[in-house]
Design the sequence.
């Protein structure tokens, strides 16, 4: 029996972003049909555990313009919609979505903010124009708005006194995983 990996999604008027979170995925298979049928399967881990996702998307898609990218931690799909319009939901059927399906808030943009995102690049690579951050006086060291002559040195040893020595990681020859051995005093 196959398991379901965690799946995140977001949309724009012309595309759907689908991210399957499955580290070290192998034997990745994707089937996307014009009617909106999305099927994903892969294996993961040393035991090659099978994973599957079978979704009926809300509307039709353009298979030829859709793209996929397989990374080490996830598989990203850019699914091109057949019509440039916002979908009220990802899946064709109404009701509560499956528990493995979640909104990708890192890519999510509201319908009325889509133009701003494309014009102003709001998001991870934001364009701040000619905003001067030095006038915010947010603290920090020299060059970050701190008054001249003030620095962060307080000649206190409290941080160094409370530091515990952490033993080095031991690597087991039969495994690629590293283990940390902690001894209590």
Sequence:
């Amino acid at each position: 029996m196959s398991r379901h990996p965690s799946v995140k999604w977001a949309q724009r008027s012309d595309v759907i972003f689908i991210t399957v979170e499955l580290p070290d995925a192998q034997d990745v298979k994707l089937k996307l049909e014009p009617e909106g049928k999305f099927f994903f399967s892969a294996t993961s881990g040393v035991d090659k555990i099978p994973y599957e996702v079978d979704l009926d998307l809300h509307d039709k898609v353009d298979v030829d313009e859709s793209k996929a990218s397989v990374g080490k931690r996830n598989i990203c799909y850019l699914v091109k919609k057949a019509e440039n319009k916002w979908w009220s939901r990802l899946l064709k059927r109404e009701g509560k979505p499956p528990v493995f399906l979640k909104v990708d808030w890192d890519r999510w943009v509201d319908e009325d903010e889509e133009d701003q995102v494309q014009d102003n690049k709001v998001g991870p690579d934001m364009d701040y124009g000619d905003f001067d951050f030095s006038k915010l006086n947010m603290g920090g060291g020299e060059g970050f708005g701190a008054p001249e002559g003030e620095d962060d040195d307080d000649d206190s040893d409290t941080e160094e006194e409370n530091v515990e020595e952490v033993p080095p990681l031991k690597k087991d020859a039969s495994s690629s995983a590293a283990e940390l051995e902690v001894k209590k005093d």
User: Anything to note?
Assistant: The longest strand covers residues 61-70. Residues 16 and 39 are 15 Å apart (CA to CA). The chain is about 5% helix and 35% strand.
